[in-house]
Amino acid sequence: MSTFKHYIDEVRLRIRRLNLYDDDKLDDRLIKFWINNQRSLWLRNEMNKPRTVDEQIIQTLGCVQLEVADRTSCPTGLVGYSILQTVEDIPTVIELNNGDGIIEVGPVDKIARPFSYVNINRARLAGNGRFNTRIIFAFRYGIKILVIAKNMESGSFAKYLRYIRVRGVFVNPEDVANFNHVDGTACYSDNDDYPMNEWMWNYMRDQITKDNFQLITGAPTDKVNDASETLKVATNEE
Predict the structure, then answer these.
(1) Exposed/middle/buried for 168, CB within 10 Å: 0-12, 13-18, 19+?
(2) Is there a single domain that holds both residue 113 and residue 200?
(3) Both 45 and 63 in a single domain?
(4) pLDDT for residue 227 is more than 80
(5) Of 95, 171, 193, 201, which residue is most buried, by most CB within 10 angstroms?
(6) Domain match, 77 and 114 both
(7) What residue numbers bound the domain in which 155 lies?
């Protein structure tokens, strides 16, 4: 695995080989968009296959604060539950054929038992079985994670559960930088390993070249660098 900057520099190197000069001022944000977009497509295809999820692509929101949910904004059918929700909006996750990219939701204590992560339809029936009445459930509702429990001691669930840990595969890894671990460090920075399998990059890089470079190489540029309005289209011959 390599850093985001490493992959951006590789894309820029390819652009220079196409005679796009430095004064073209190609923004890093555009290159990041290309990489993140291709990563999402590749990961979605891989995760829809019947195999385990590689730890290299999983990111962790280490300490997500909870609050008592506003019941007017909760989904219908959650009668008799204590309900908490995340204060911050959860980053957009990879959408799959049969679910989403959330891998695990649980306490910030890494060795504690995680919650049972379900979809919204199963959440409406959670805790009604013979053996799961005291299990804590979590599900994604829009841009929030909701945590629910049934038959807990009066007030204990909402009183003592203040933070959770969320592990998942997110569309934009940089969105995870808005969250911190328990020790206060950011959950992601561009100096960290970019959450992607290394073998995948070779294919992604070729697809980025195919899909986007024609737009860049065909853009008018000031090749003479004379600050005039006379623009030319970039070509490999110049």
Answers:
(1) buried
(2) no
(3) no
(4) no
(5) 201
(6) yes
(7) 59-178
Specify if 183 maps to a domain. no
**Amino acid, res. 199:** W
Residue, of 70 and 218, whose pLDDT is higher: 70
Average pLDDT, the chain: 84
Residues 138 and 75 in one domain: yes
Q: Is 183 exposed, middle or buried (0-12, 13-18, 19+ CB in 10 A)?
A: exposed
pTM of the model: 0.82
Top pLDDT among 13 and 237 is at 13
Would you say 182 and 108 are in contact if contact means Cβ atoms under 8 Å apart?
Answer: yes
Domains identified in the chain, total number = 2
- pLDDT confidence band for 20 (50 / 70 / 90): low
In angstroms, the CA 104 to CA 93 distance is 12
Same domain, yes or no, for 99 and 78?
yes
Phi, psi of 44 (to 5 degrees): -60, -45
Q: Does residue 162 have a pLDDT over 50?
A: yes
Residues 166 and 70 in one domain: yes
Which is more confidently placed, 112 or 235?
Answer: 112
Q: Which residues of 8-23 are buried (b: 16+ CB within 10 A; e: fewer)?
A: bebbeeebeeeebeee
Secondary structure class of 169 (helix, strand, coil): coil
- Looking at the fold, whether 81 and 152 belong to one and the same domain comes out as yes
